[in-house]
Design a protein that fits this description.
This protein is α/β, with parallel strands linked by helices. It folds into 2 domains: 251 residues, TIM Barrel; 189 residues, Alpha-Beta Barrel (TIM Barrel). 38% of the residues lie in helices and 18% in strands. The protein is built from 16 helices and 17 strands. The strands form 3 sheets. An 8-stranded parallel β-sheet has the order 1-2-3-4-5-6-7-8. Strand 16, helix 16 and strand 17 form a beta-alpha-beta unit. Helix 2 runs parallel beside helix 3, helix 8 packs across helix 9 and helix 10 packs parallel to helix 11. The structure holds iron/sulfur cluster. The site of iron/sulfur cluster has 11 residues, from loops.
């Protein structure tokens, strides 16, 4: 199942066969659609569609092309429309300096009016930005867009533009143009967006994907966008589908997020959500920003029992590996990890421990002999080439944490486990090459750089 975060089934292009188009979307597994208004007339149709179809929602707005028509009366009508329960967003609004169909001053004024309305009704904003990124970002900052949340629809910017949007807690939505051969830059931007901030859309009837280019677009063709996004990001099609639905629900506050997951699959690895507790407080930790990882809800009410984890794994040979991970430090529950690992190994599975390397410090003894035979691989978050940097960015609660993790890496290697040290690339804060030298030359283990803000 997938979600189309931006379509216009409210457009006259669908007036003759809208029901067939909707049926095709459902047949293709599209379970959530946002019909976006671009003037008062299409806003009304979007609301009518949402009232008639439980899988559709509406957004209220006037496109920047029509900004010259936005006056107090239009805003008042939008305010009235925005109160409907089917309306989950305000927009599309923004700036379009490519076509300049309305004077730029009028566009900016209408954009600010939409943002003010969004604050008033506490709904996120759907933003259109074309050849106007600098002004757009300035207005978004100025108007405090973090208060309402927002999505930059049909993203067309650089990776740095994407990072600027992410810094304001915005979502970024990619459309069919990511499938175009010349869109390498756009695909690069797609790859820097974390899974919990990513949406996909068709923008139908516009922007058909490469294989349908020039034809009318429709929500059933979201599969092309999802397929390309999955390839670019190195995840499966199913991973991208799940991400599209989860983020749609979170941003537009619709549907049930579901219960927190004990075990969750990404690519063909099964991750176990061992605990939400950790003895670090890394300032970049994803759990401070989101409950979801690659579309999985990790908000568990309590730590799972051994039996619950073993049951959640089932037959471990169905997966490439079973990873002890989650939104916390698994070695805080070392005995549980060992019990589950023993069961997984007995059934012929492959195991990996993702850890901050504090296990021996936490337990007050060298735990590495206890891992032999139970854990095949260990991935340790090294994160810094020295204790001072580590303490500054990871805020460890356990005394001697950094020295302990270095000793843990050495000991796991001595005991014959496959060890990979990792570091999160944070510009200006961590010398990644120094981390690499430490890992590869001094500790003799593999080294992997993890992108900031990208988890799973
Ligand atoms: S060690 Fe991992 S789980 Fe713990 S705070 Fe750091 S990033 Fe988060």
């Amino acid at each position: 199942m997938s979600a189309d975060s931006h379509c216009h089934l409210n457009d006259p292009a669908f007036k003759d066969d809208r029901d067939e188009v909707i049926a095709r979307a459902r047949g293709a597994g599209v379970c959530l659609m946002l019909n976006v208004g671009y003037d008062l007339a299409t806003t009304r149709v979007a609301i009518d569609l949402a009232r008639a179809n439980p899988d559709m929602f509406a957004s209220v707005g006037v496109h920047p092309h029509n900004a010259k028509d936005v006056d107090g009366e239009v805003i008042e009508k939008m305010r009235f429309a925005a109160a409907a329960p089917e309306v989950v967003a305000i927009g599309e609004t923004g700036l379009d300096y490519y076509r300049d169909r309305s004077p730029r001053e009028a566009q900016q004024k209408a954009f600010r009016a939409h943002l003010a309305l969004a604050r008033e009704v506490c709904k996120p904003v759907v933003i259109h930005c074309r050849n106007a990124m600098e002004d757009c970002l300035e207005i978004l900052r100025d108007e405090g867009v973090e208060q309402t949340g927002a999505v930059m629809h049909c993203f067309a910017g650089t990776p740095d533009d994407a990072r600027a949007c992410l810094a304001m807690n915005m979502y970024i939505s990619f459309a069919g143009n990511i499938t175009y051969p010349k869109a390498a830059g756009l695909r690069e931007s797609l790859s820097v967006v974390p899974g919990h901030r990513l949406l996909v859309e068709t923008d139908s009837p516009y922007l058909a994907p490469r294989k349908k280019r020039g034809k009318r677009n429709e929500p059933s063709l979201i599969s092309h966008v999802i397929g390309q996004a999955a390839t670019t990001r190195g995840v499966t099609y199913e991973d991208m589908e799940r991400i599209s639905v989860s983020n749609f629900k979170t941003l537009f506050k619709v549907g049930d997020p579901g219960a927190g997951e004990v075990a969750y699959m990404i690519r063909n690895s099964l991750y176990l959500n061992v605990t939400r507790s950790c003895d670090n407080e890394c300032y970049f930790c994803a759990r401070f920003h989101s409950d979801t990882v690659q579309g999985h809800n990790l908000r568990i009410e309590r730590d799972p029992t051994t039996e619950e984890m073993i049951e959640a794994v089932g037959d471990p040979t169905r997966y490439d590996e079973v990873v002890f991970c989650g939104y916390g430090e698994p070695t805080l529950r070392l005995d549980r990890v060992k019990e589950v690992a023993r069961a997984v190994k007995a059934m012929g599975g492959h195991t990996r421990l993702n850890t901050n390397g504090h296990g021996s410090v936490i337990a007050g003894r060298d735990i590495t002999p206890e891992l032999v035979g139970l854990v095949d691989e260990v991935s340790v978050s090294l994160n810094a080439p020295d204790a001072d940097t580590y303490n500054a960015i990871c805020n460890p609660k356990s005394p001697g944490a950094y020295e302990g993790l270095i000793e843990f890496i050495k000991a796991t290697r001595r005991r014959g486990l496959k060890v990979t040290a990792t570091a999160v690339a944070i510009e200006g804060k961590v010398d990644i090459e120094a981390c690499r030298r430490l890992a590869e030359n001094e500790l003799g283990v593999y080294f992997r750089v993890r992108d900031y803000n990208l988890v799973g």
